[in-house]
């Protein structure tokens, strides 16, 4: 299947860098900036590196909890809550999009709509919201029974409808500011929402005027059935884990078809699979770096994380060289969170018979995203191939470590630019313009 | 009653500027910056003016709703949600404290604790949280029955206990970052909270390490009985509306005695009454400016706001020159929100027999805070008198308009400095240091 005609001619790139590398062992690697961990200056520097490389967006993933046991050997999730951090970064960057992850399960839609809209005002139209339903963290939010997957997605659908409705409260010309006549705004152009649904009751209007982008960009990363519908209905950017090119093409086709079914244009959804690039001077060098990173991982912690990805499988007694016996793995239908990721690890363990070490390597490097090792040229080739054949509209970069991040910008981006596959300057100002997606029309809601 | 020995030798000043003036009519006044309203640049400029004047804190009040009817003639609450805005301002200021208002009624304690802790990290120890229980906004948060005053304060007490407990999760030396040994943190120094109370169930730990300030500063502004207890237990800075010096002294004495009862030092609570200064070249000039501002107010809107301050009183048919007949005013005990403010307006209307215009003037200028008009010298005298006689540890400035804000910094601050009553340079770095209040010890919780 060739690229759809509506697809963009250049790929889109976002950076999800954690605190300088997403690999579990990255902080221990020579050249990591673990001493700067927890400073806003490190985050400013990462965002500015991404902006200097002309990326579409700086993407902040998030969890609302910390794994206390794993703290000994791995850095926990960011110090900084994404919306406050990105508001700070907005003052030190000019063009790059700023995407904050926030949970529909743990937040109130009025506050979330307001904070994302404020980020859009502060950044002059560069805000994005990555809507997640969360599969961990309930212990910090009073849930006595953890809502199941479908219930979380039902809430997420209603949540997103409230948020977008609130973002549409103000018409673009609602502000009058006529000193002499004493007319500040035109109340006829500021609309209540009066939402009264099964989970939320929100009157509105939002206390933030029209967003510079019309609406901030919604990003979605769920790949389950309800996740795909949520993405197709609301998201302009979809972040997905795809190992296989054919499956990725099928996924993109499915998302675009669903979007069309919801009355949207196929080109208004940009799908970016995750990519963890290990870049060496030679292919052998890249493989060596991959193994070095894996050697920095704490084995019991890594196996425990793998067990989580496998739906809470019992991996006790298994060594790194073992293949997991099928009886150890729970039935996919019983898994309530990150279901699509579970299906991937399940398949690699059962159909492809990957060893525990190889599975751990994938999990530790990029928690299940496409991970490739090679020279800059080989990485660029692999990316170009997927882009040209309609298996990706671009990528969310998940550099395993600080040095791989720098190498990607120094070595791979210039190759993509030479080939005409990536921008050589920012043409737009807003995230929506970088992605080439239109703003939903208020009337079409 | 003279100043208590524990009181500071210099006054503390915070600025609550709205968007350049808190008077209802301010946006219409010559020199207002209403054209810049909604830009982060305006807020940056206000914060920097306050920092150049060496103020302790830049204070952002907040509501989680917009009054759609009043939009025609008055600017609504800020575009910017306080925590995101102050995170942005942290990158453009160096020393001034940054205090964000956030509601205990509409928020989750884990998220709030995290965002304030992030602001403290971003600003390197300058964050404050003004904990409010909110008396409006329920329509945006699904409440079918609005919780009454006491219920809101019970929630607020538990909320504050959870937040401070989460802030204490990490011991100062919990981070190890030992690359070679593969030890990132010492889990024995990262503590769960395991809070299981009537309203919240929060396991912790927080996913933000120890705050630069030990704990961010808590600010409280309720003056009712449960409000005073909340302040005395948790707050390092208390913002209060006080017209009368004797009452203000009694209030401060009461708050400090309650704090002592909770095992705290009297000097660890700084009480700052609000102050709305109208500064003229002469006394007559100041009076003229006050009347000019009142003339810019929309009368029906102002009377409606006054009716709100009077607990929903029916003021229909009353003219500006009338005194409110006592039968129009509801019983104070039946009023559920902003009760102390209601008692003030009730007293002025019934005991002092203020006219509707005079009441509106107070409400529109500063919604009930101490409002004085005079020359810079007279304003400084009035402030000095209250400070020297123990009726204030300083003030939260509520300049009615942009020009009054500028005049205060240009004319009043230098007089206070000459008299040795206000700092001539920042001595500390954190908000806690500016206020001269110690950080609560984790062990004392």
TrEMBL record, chains A, B:
Gene Ontology MF annotations: monooxygenase activity; oxidoreductase activity, acting on paired donors, with incorporation or reduction of molecular oxygen
Residues annotated as domain Luciferase-like: 32-391
A family per Pfam: Bac_luciferase
Sorted UniProt keywords: Flavoprotein, FMN, Monooxygenase, Oxidoreductase
InterPro entries assigned to the protein according to its UniProt record, in alphabetical order: Diverse_substr_monoxygenases (IPR051260), Luciferase-like_dom (IPR011251), Luciferase-like_sf (IPR036661), NTA_MOA (IPR016215)
SUPFAM superfamilies: Bacterial luciferase-like
Residue positions binding FMN: 62, 101, 149, 153, 223-224
Top-level taxon of the source organism: Bacteria
Family: Belongs to the NtaA/SnaA/DszA monooxygenase family.
Cited NCBIfam families: FMN_nitrolo
Name of the protein in its database record: LLM class flavin-dependent oxidoreductase
